[in-house]
Every structure is written in structure tokens, then in C-alpha cells.
Amino acid sequence: MKMSEFSELGMSVLVCGKSRPLRQALQASLQAMGCSSVSNAGSVDDIDTVLSSQHIDVALIGNATEADLSARLQEGAPGIPIICLTQGDSLPAPRMHGLKKPFRSTDLINSLESATTDTQRLASSAMAV
Length: 129
Known about the structure:
Layout: H1 3-7, E1 12-16, H2 20-32, E2 37-41, H3 44-53, E3 58-61, H4 67-76, E4 82-86, E5 97-100, H5 105-128
Parallel strand pairs: 1-2, 1-3, 3-4, 4-5
């Protein structure tokens, strides 16, 4: 997949995590990939502020151990797909997609597309019932 193909999605991404350098690096990468909007949040309050002021297509959590951030995302925006960066054999929380570190840009693109596609599929099947 080419980076230019990703820019056509116009995806709005919320990058969450307590590590400011990681959030900033992910934010810069996502912007370079053509995401229409990339916000970052380092706390539960930051998440609440972003969710109340803008539409988010997908959230990315920088560390699987940041349970307070993932819980707030699942509570505050239950329909938003969440991708959690994992290390080694750690697994993301239920209802999250995992992306094992280290990863390449194409891995991140594939995870974003997969997470949004899975969420759209679930929403469509729920409406059909």
C-alpha cells in the first residue's frame, strides 16, 4: 500500500498515552501519512476534552498498561475502534486491536484500516438485526 492511498481516507485519530515523546512521534507520523486530524491526549481529562470537541474515527493507545486511558475511551466513546501498541507477548484489553512494537508505517496503516473496517462491519450487522 502506498502512503498516498491512506491520505484519501481523511481519518481523524486520537493518540493517547502518558509518554509525550511517543505521542508526538505517532502524531507526526500519522500527519505525514495524510490523516485529516491527529490529536493527542496524555490523561483522562485530555481524552474528555478531545471527545467533547471533535469527531474521532479511531484511537491509538501507546501502551497496553495504560488501563485508565483505555477504560475512559471505551466508556466515553464506545463505538470508536481502539488500537493498542503492545510489546512482546502482551495482549490488548478486550475490544481492542493490537499492534506489536516495533512496527513499520505500513503495519500502522493496515491496523488503522482493519480497526475501522471491523467497527463498520459490526455496526452494519447490529443494524440488520
